[in-house]
Design brief:
Elements (H helix, E strand, L loop, with lengths): L9 H16 L4 H18 L3 H14 L3 H17 L3 H14 L4 H20 L3 H21 L5 H9 L5
Length: about 170
């Protein structure tokens, strides 16, 4: 039984029903529909904290999906999982791969910035001002890009950029 068939959450059930309807009428190849099904199951597993299952579904979706735009979201979600698990280098790799396919993905830019900011905070705790500055500068670079794409989002990042003199 696919994950979407055993989901008890009302919103997830509604999403599943709508997605199934769209899939029936959408002029897509069998592989595209199958890729979407795996992606959908991956999102469902991810929302329940079942990261290993989500990754399995996302990796299958990546093998089947040919559309670069759709692949970017699969890659982004894989990055989210690795970031949630504290595997920041892997997360950065997947966020960058997503951005290579879709430059207009502000959430990936934001998440990259968050990782660099976190690394900057850790370096500050260890009294390493050079690494702190480098990480904070990188965070600022990615947050500025994210804000250019989504000016009404990332208010906390905008405030941080202003208060640290990194808004330029």
């Amino acid at each position: 039984m696919s994950r979407s068939q055993k989901n008890d959450n009302f919103i997830d059930k509604t999403f599943t029903i709508l997605a199934d309807i769209v899939l029936k009428f959408l002029p897509a190849s069998k592989e595209e529909k199958e890729a979407f099904s795996y992606y959908k199951d991956g999102m469902s597993a991810q929302s329940e904290g079942e990261y290993a299952e989500a990754l399995e579904n996302y990796y299958v979706a990546l093998k089947l999906e040919e559309d670069p735009y759709d692949r970017s979201y699969v890659l982004y979600n894989i990055g989210l999982i690795y970031s949630s698990n504290g595997e920041y280098i892997k997360a950065l790799e997947y966020y960058h791969q997503a951005l290579e396919l879709n430059e207009k993905l502000p959430q990936a830019l934001n998440n990259i910035a968050v990782i660099y900011h976190y690394q900057g905070l850790k370096a500050a705790e260890q009294s390493n001002p050079e690494i702190t500055k480098t990480m904070f500068d990188k965070a600022g670079e990615y947050w500025r890009q994210a804000i250019r794409l989504a000016p009404n989002n990332y208010i906390e990042a905008q405030n941080w950029l202003k208060t640290t003199g990194r808004m330029n």
